[in-house]
Amino acid sequence: MTDKQILEWKNRFAVAGAWLVAILFFFPIFWMVLTSFKTELQAIAIPPLLVFEPTLDNYTLIQERTDYTQYAWSSVVTSLGGTALAMLIAIPSAYAMAFSPTRRTKDILLWMLSTKMLPAVGVLLPIYLLSQKLGLLDTKIVLVVIYALINLPIIMMILFNYFREIPKEILEASRMDGTSTWNEITQIVMPLAWGGIASTALLSVVLCWNEAFWAINLTSSEAGTLAALVASFSSPEGLFWSKLSAVATLACAPIVVFGWLCQKQLVQGLTFGAVK
Amino acid sequence: MAGVTINNLRKSYGDVEVMHGIDLQIDDGEFVVFVGPSGCGKSTLLRMIAGLEDVTSGTVSIGDQVVNYVAPSKRGVAMVFQTYALYPHMSVYKNMSFGLKQQKTPAAEIDERVRAAAEILQITDYLDRSPRNLSGGQRQRVAIGRAIVRDPEVFLFDEPLSNLDASLRVQTRLEIARLHERLGTTMIYVTHDQVEAMTLADKIVVLRDGVIEQVGSPIELYTNPANQFVASFIGSPKMNFFASNDLVTDTPTTHITGIRPEHLILSAKDEAVVSGKLELIEQLGEYALAYLVSGTGTEFTAKMEVPPSTSIGQTLHFSAKPNTTHFFDAESTVRVMN
């Protein structure tokens, strides 16, 4: 083989490898969507059916049995609300940490991030009891607050990194120009870090949307999100694969479309502003 | 317009003191250049005058007012940064008007002042552009424009030419000199480039390790440097320093002799002050630089109108122009009178 042929083969292997990984990731989603159009019998058929007569029965049944729009609305409100609350706290905090750092700033950030390493179940009991005493069980408010708090460390970390990319001199110039702190944040920092702020917010919305642990434990019929709805189809009524797939598809669909539309910003946010 | 008075100014970061009691008087309308090697504290001093760094002790006064605790924007100073520090998301016009807007100046007045400043700097055509679409030189002019618009009592320049290429640097340097001529405002300018210092300054302040080494007019520093550091820092190429055993003539062993490269004259052996083996010649057209090594191993440079016809490795003999030799105490490096 010539060098050129070796190079070509290497490229082919790389492409094949990439396809393999992509299929590995995509297949469960594909299978979920496919199963949602099967009857329960077709869903458990061995060997698995690839060709069959699709049915919409599962979707009609879900709509009859539950109020999908109510759950979806809950997801929308808690995701956007949690994100908005978190951003409200994170922007000024990250601003302070990025532009007036102390010797302990990095430690504080790391400590905040370390709370993400604790298993959530560790604080389930106190948070459940607190919510109960405050009369917040099965309300959207409790999820908004919880979502804001659990995403805050990551949001802070990303925003901190974005803000630090703003040259210090620009803020000094604005101080020479007599800008108030509020104007400095709203007229200088936010416009300059707008891409970062937007992608961080998008990431937070996705994380909130997919959150299941707190939604399942703190809410049910009133404020339950789509994640809670999916869960309700799995345990108490046995494993009905095609119905479960249908409800899971319905839960995923909005955020997948949303994520697809905002792909570029999301990737930017996930790379932590490391590449400009 | 106002002068600046600095009294026993100190600055510490934690336990480390970086400015050790600076006293300085800058007169109204003067062009003062702070010069010194990296880390000498020149930028810190400027930033303390600007209000971007806290004062640990001592006072900074602008006009008659002590400004230690006055906000940067209320000090009547405007600063031009090395990196321009323009607001990238605003047009040139908005960059220049931003400060006035923050001070709630009437729109008509803002417009008038921005256009007047743009006129002075010939950037009227770029007012609608974003800084991204400007060249380095244009950006620096916008940064200067932003300072002019504020009509400050004192202009502060923090190495404003460092990011420009060589030809643009010379051009912008001239423009800054013209600007000072035209506005007559007090200007304080930080640079590590002694050519900028020599050409622009009414008064040069040479700093080293947070201490002022000497204050004086450019020519004063050139002809009467207070110590060996100032002597070596001012003038290009650098002054040559010789120990007594490098020289043919008799000098006390406690003295270091300084002769500038341009003051060495090629001479006969019996008239020579110093001799050296020729190592390298740099031909610059207008003049040539000869790099030599003395018999005792000291390297020195001679500036000559005509390059020597001698080949590399040959010995050359030099005498010094009369009254141009400097003597420094070998221990304290302070200049001793000839």
UniProtKB/TrEMBL annotation, chain A:
CDD domains in the record: TM_PBP2
Topology versus the membrane: Multi-pass membrane protein
Domain of life: Bacteria
SUPFAM superfamilies cross-referenced by the UniProt entry: MetI-like (SSF161098)
Transmembrane segments: 12-34, 71-96, 108-129, 141-163, 184-206, 240-261
Subcellular location, record wording: Cell membrane
Entry-linked Pfam families: BPD_transp_1
Any one GO biological process: transmembrane transport
Residues annotated as domain ABC transmembrane type-1: 72-262
This protein's GO CC annotations: plasma membrane
Keyword tags: Cell membrane, Membrane, Transmembrane, Transmembrane helix, Transport
UniProt similarity note: Belongs to the binding-protein-dependent transport system permease family.
Name of this protein: Mannitol ABC transporter permease
Organism phylogeny: Bacteria, Pseudomonadati, Pseudomonadota, Alphaproteobacteria, Rhodospirillales
TrEMBL record, chain B:
Any one GO molecular-function label of the UniProt entry: ABC-type maltose transporter activity
CC per GO annotation: ATP-binding cassette (ABC) transporter complex, substrate-binding subunit-containing; maltose transport complex
Superkingdom of origin organism: Bacteria
Keywords assigned by UniProt, alphabetized: ATP-binding, Nucleotide-binding, Transport
Residue span(s) of domain ABC transporter: 4-234
SMART domains per the UniProt record, alphabetical: AAA
InterPro entries linked: AAA+_ATPase (IPR003593), ABC_transporter-like_ATP-bd (IPR003439), ABC_transporter-like_CS (IPR017871), ABC_transpr_MalK-like (IPR015855), ABC_transpr_MalK/UgpC-like (IPR047641), Mo/tungstate-bd_C_term_dom (IPR008995), NA-bd_OB-fold (IPR012340), P-loop_NTPase (IPR027417)
Spans through the membrane: none
Pfam family name, one: ABC_tran
Keyword RNA-binding recorded: no
Family: Belongs to the ABC transporter superfamily.
The name this protein goes by in its record: ABC transporter ATP-binding protein
